[in-house]
Amino acid sequence: MSKTAADLVAEARRNIREISAAEWSEGRRGGVLIDVREPVEYATGHLGGAVNIPRGVLEFQVDAHPAVAKVVDPALSHKHQPVTVICRTGGRAALAAVALQQLGFADVRSIAGGTTAWIDAGLPLVND
Fold first, then answer.
1. Mean pLDDT, consecutive 10-residue segments, the chain of 128 residues?
2. Strand bridging mode 83-86 / 32-35
3. Please, are residues 77 and 65 in contact by the beta-carbon 8 Å criterion?
4. CA-based nearest residue to 69, from 116, 103, 109, 110
């Protein structure tokens, strides 16, 4: 039986930890924030401190990205630091969170509703 994209996202959401825009903005951050939107979307505005690794190349680039691979102690693996993912509405971020978990990242979460929920909550985006 084939699945739709909506089915895949719903299944992903059942297997990940989602947090609200308010939780992220209230300082429950830590680790790395990855924006999995395409570069043109990211350029229109993103959360401060987010690194852009598009969903289509995430599995290939996440280990090599300096923001993720940064290790403060050689004995610690970067896959144990918290990683939060965001996209426009939450679907790509949910799929990305599952992929990161499958790659061995231990503390992965997704911002529910993505940048749309962020904007709806009256929170600011940055352009750089």
1. 92 94 77 92 93 89 69 58 93 96 92 94 88
2. parallel
3. no
4. 103
